[in-house]
User: Which sequence fits this backbone?
């Protein structure tokens, strides 16, 4: 009888331990949500899950795009602003790339790729200028941010991207879900 009681206690203890392991595993999975399709995970970017347009073929086929991007055809158009198409793409080595393609005949392209983990506490930013000296500060942020602010301007975040006009030297703040972050200005 004592032996049966000891066996029952052992089974109960093992079942309890198994339940604790399952609960901890679930909690860790939720805390470390991964971006679909990005090895190693990171903050979520819903724009990458859309069926929107990808980089134009004449841009996607360029050798530098082939080297930077994991799959140029999986890039997504986040928004267009003042003659520029803004794309978000998965890069190599757990990076996210921000690409700005001019709507000119040459399809001039600027871009930057950074580790996806930076999106946990700031934006990936790129400052581009045109021949007239006008600048756009363009950024990519994780899901949940709704607006960007700098130099008295405000811009909505659409498809994880935003653009602010002529604020190259200003500190950009991005807000959403009761949270505001300061973003470092990064140029290539």
Assistant:
């Amino acid at each position: 009888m004592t032996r049966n009681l000891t066996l029952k206690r052992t089974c109960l203890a093992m079942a309890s331990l198994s339940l604790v392991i399952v609960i901890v595993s679930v909690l860790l999975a939720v805390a470390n949500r991964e971006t679909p399709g990005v090895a190693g995970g990171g903050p979520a970017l819903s724009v990458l899950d859309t069926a929107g347009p990808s980089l134009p073929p004449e841009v996607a086929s360029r050798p530098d795009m082939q080297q930077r991007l994991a799959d140029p055809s999986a890039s997504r158009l986040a928004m267009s602003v003042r003659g520029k198409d803004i794309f978000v793409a998965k890069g190599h080595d757990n990076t996210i790339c921000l690409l700005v393609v001019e709507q000119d005949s040459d399809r001039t392209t600027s871009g930057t790729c950074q580790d996806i983990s930076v999106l946990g506490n700031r934006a990936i930013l790129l400052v581009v200028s045109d021949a007239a000296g006008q600048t756009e500060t363009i950024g990519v942020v994780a899901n949940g941010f709704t607006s960007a602010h700098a130099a008295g301007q405000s811009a909505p975040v659409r498809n994880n991207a935003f653009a602010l006009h002529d604020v190259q030297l200003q500190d950009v703040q991005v807000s959403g879900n009761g949270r505001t972050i300061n973003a470092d200005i990064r140029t290539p």
